[in-house]
């Protein structure tokens, strides 16, 4: 998932009129009105005098997925997202099984600003339990339909999005290689010193912003002078970096960029470009050749800028996972130290296939899109075919994350794919990967 953009407006009843104006934005995923956080009782430790708790997580398609219990039931699975100020339940079936009360109704607006049939409801007093942690009363948003299909994108069940409430209450260290979150009490936390870069965080309306310098690529291919930018810290974004060229006239599309689909919103495909920046500087660390998304400008970005603090883009988990990260909202800082993934190159998909998981256990891998002019299109692959095997390995036994890795493994590598057409006929193709960025 690169972008799933939602806008939310409160339904205000004035006499017989039940339509209101846009009062709050659900940013690159979801933002609730800032005042809602006041109705949430913060996360705390379950053991008296405890100072830390360790929470294991899984990573799929550059998404951090944690297991949590709600109102004593579960576990359920949630994407952990600093870019969301109010947590979100995307599985509407949980409303009945958890006896959730639907409160204030909100309408959901698509990526182009148009209304959608989807509705969201505020639900209060939800008890959330993580290993060693509990939030006795949290406010959530409940969607009327699973329109985001996060489970299909990740290839595993996801019931919603756990937002920034955890980060406001705890100092959270993310260890990507271990698959662990270490949550520590702010009053007893002592920051590490040697080898760690410290960047100030600015908190506004539940979101965290940081300053970073980006070296854009010039037409000749060399890197330009560092350009200071203000970015949203967004663990729920699967990309490395996203820049909004309409937010700053100094930003431009890089040479050799690729026009492509960046993701899928409620009203259809989110279009844009993918390219590279020469480097991004995060404190003392310089990361070269970062793949960067450039979403097309539009009404959504205008509204985001009107309601959010000024920014030029966001920093996603594809980049953050190359560091051990301390996200310290209480002391307003981000600490970074490179890990073993730090030297891995940034590679975009080399096949042109857009895949989604479906069926029981999300074991069916379906072709959702085929980019024109890509190796997949040249091989004759079409939408709605099922990927049955890749290099003789059954696709149903491979996580979608691993399939995506194989499809960007090496420029010029040839893969043998077995596919099933919608009428049930099997056929095979030889697919030669091609680096397009």
TL;DR?
This protein has 437 residues and is mainly β. It has helices at residues 94-97, 150-154, 165-169, 299-307, 317-320, 375-378, 400-406; strands at residues 6-10, 24-26, 44-45, 52-60, 63-70, 73-80, 87-89, 105-109, 115-130, 133-143, 160-162, 171-175, 180-184, 197-204, 207-215, 227-233, 241-243, 258-265, 268-282, 285-295, 313-315, 323-328, 333-338, 353-358, 364-370, 386-390, 393-394, 414-420, 426-432.
Topology summary:
Blueprint: E1 6-10, E2 24-26, E3 44-45, E4 52-60, E5 63-70, E6 73-80, E7 87-89, H1 94-97, E8 105-109, E9 115-130, E10 133-143, H2 150-154, E11 160-162, H3 165-169, E12 171-175, E13 180-184, E14 197-204, E15 207-215, E16 227-233, E17 241-243, E18 258-265, E19 268-282, E20 285-295, H4 299-307, E21 313-315, H5 317-320, E22 323-328, E23 333-338, E24 353-358, E25 364-370, H6 375-378, E26 386-390, E27 393-394, H7 400-406, E28 414-420, E29 426-432
Parallel strand pairs: 6-11, 7-10, 16-21, 17-20
Antiparallel strand pairs: 1-2, 1-8, 3-10, 4-5, 4-13, 5-6, 5-9, 7-11, 8-9, 9-10, 12-13, 12-22, 14-15, 14-23, 15-16, 15-19, 17-21, 18-19, 19-20, 22-23, 24-25, 25-26, 26-27, 26-28, 28-29
